[in-house]
Amino acid sequence: MIREVPGTFANALVMGVRQAIDVDRARVQHDGYRKMLEDAGYEVTVLPGDSTCPDSPFIEDAAVVLDNFAILTRPGAPERQPEVPPVAEALSGLMPTVEIKAPGTLDGGDVLRMGRTFFVGRSTRTNDAGIAQFAELASTDGMRVIATPLNGVLHLKTAVLGLDDETILIASEFTDPRVFIGYRLVEKPPDEVTSSALRLHNGRVVVTANTPLTMSAVAAAGFEVDWIDVTEFQKADGGLTCLSLLFPHT
Ligand code: CIR
Fold this sequence. Notes:
By secondary structure, this protein is of the alpha/beta class. It has 6 helices and 14 strands.
């Protein structure tokens, strides 16, 4: 499931220095992202954009899909909370849904699934109450949750990404690598942007086009790699995972 780019996307939230976002280019890149998913065999549902929610294409933050139900989030940025109801409605036709409630906050970008484990980042968007609620809900699906520290980045998946259930692409400076003992760690080359990889259900990994060293590192770890350009989304602190909600059974 993905969500269209609204005309207001240039006003998306940005942590650092704001660069001009070209919305037409973002839409072309978003079309490329949809095509990439379809070519990989995903059946892609496209939700309409919402001009009152500039960040709505970052649909990953609005929900976490587990094996048997979905957890609707309560995004930590108040202006992003209205993104959830349309996603909730779309998901409710497909599976049971439950929700994170106040005072809990949680962004889907802070949730990394590795097999039967969820790592959940304690970030400026995701608080302890959100993590506790998420852990309780996820345990009903047989999943365990490990709260994970973060240093100065937006989301957990800015720092770590799963390449398969055993392998993590990690930017060690942004989290504590000791949390991930037992996993195979592939260090993200330090000079390249984060949020740069997306694992697909067919085992391939898509990497952002402007991170060639990351592409080499992922390929050297044994993965078949494809690439895609998402520069306009990177300007708004987004990357590859945040542009879709992928269902674990697909
Ligand atoms: C935000 O600040 O919330 C958006 N501009 C970026 C969200 C990126 N989401 C993600 O990595 N899951």
